[in-house]
Amino acid sequence: MTTAPPKRTEAETKARRAGIASFIGTTIEWYDFYIYGTASALVFGQVFFSDTLPAGMGTLLAFVTLWAGFLARPIGGIVFGHLGDKIGRKNTLVITLMMMGTATVGIGLLPSYAQIGIWAPAALVFLRVVQGVAVGGEWGGAVLIASENAPKGKGILYSAFAQQGSPAGNLLATMAFFLLSAMPTPAFVLYGWRIPFLISAALVIVGMIIRLKLEESDAMKTVLKRKKTVALPIGEVLRKHWVLVLLGAGALPLAQVTYFKNTFALSWATSELGYDRGTFLGAIAIALVVQFIVQPFGAVLVSRIDMRKAMCIMVIPEFILMPAMFFAIRTENFAIAVVAMCLATIPHSMFYGAIAGVLARAFPANIRYTGLSAAYQLCSLVVGGGTPVLAQWMLNSSGNIVGVAFVSAGYAAVSLICTLLLLNRTGFDARRLSTAEQSDADELQLDIDEDDAVDTAPSAGQTRATAHS
């Protein structure tokens, strides 16, 4: 006799729904963000800057506009972190998705430098800044919608839903340009590159439908119900938790090495090494498939063993694999390049799958959105957008890839040191409450005890009646 499988509880259904919605929403947001990086490597230098510039300068300036989005991300983290901690995660995520979609479609409609001169790069930078503000507010909220709705002890695992949006969005962006790579170069430069940007309009509609059906997390409902919100979350974060913000930002450079591989290397390989545009986009796509597959195992690993040990297992191999990737690409052998890119992808993608949940555990619920966003966007400001700019500048200055290779290994070293220091402060067993989570639980229990005391205390009239009798 067979028995029917147990039905999911309402909490499990809500957690699964939140995880899937987080994944789909971040996939759309990151698709919009990554198509900009791909286009800046392939075509923006020609479309939005003068053709009289020295060789390589147009690409360098295109990467500078890419960086503008990263410079704006902390603004988004502060503004939408404030809103997310004051009014809830859901409404904030709806706003960020609308902003991102509008800016992306706007880029696809922009006139070129040949048509409107200097106004073309000026408008490009403005829309890139809007993209940066949107994604700066998006990431923290998407992670929290997934992790705060997760079953007990599975916050890091569920935060990986939001993280999967990055390789999925990147893969969609890469495949969009891969399919367009067969176009003749003049047609691609004239209008072909605009198609992935205009497609964003349809994707945003899908994302909005899904996000409007989301429920707020129980943790945030409790904060709102008990009026535990903070008047100025960023002030609270900087006053009481600034060390955690700095350690969190220091833990994240390894999450930014994708811009070495998918943005800088794409430009370097196609403009200087002789790789065909479609060929190298295919190599990136293969590496992104590997990332999508292996990334969740980082969250699984840190959930099952001492998180410090798990981080060492994931990060230390990158000291060798990321530098080796550049030398493999330089061989101009497609098979060698693909294998090296896939191997270099494994450590940093597993790290990326785990680090969001690790950082979310570091901050109390009433300032968690702001704290998480501040750490992530501080790293993006200093490291993320500057990565292809730095790499291109080093290549232009030295004429070789050696310096870029060593810098990429340095990213991994900084991340490992700061992550270990962070875990020593917040806790390194994912199956137990972190320091901040335990503080939240203790405060909630204190509130409940006080409410019970008020409910059971005799009124003044009852006291007088008892005394009279």
UniProtKB/TrEMBL annotation:
Keywords: Cell membrane, Membrane, Transmembrane, Transmembrane helix, Transport. Residues 459-469 have a biased composition (Polar residues). It is found in: Cell membrane. Residues 441-469 are annotated as: Disordered. GO terms for cellular component: plasma membrane. InterPro entries: MFS (IPR011701), MFS_dom (IPR020846), MFS_trans_sf (IPR036259). PROSITE patterns: MFS (PS50850). Its main location: membrane. Pfam families: MFS_1 (PF07690). This is Putative major facilitator superfamily transporter. It comes from Rhodococcus wratislaviensis NBRC 100605.
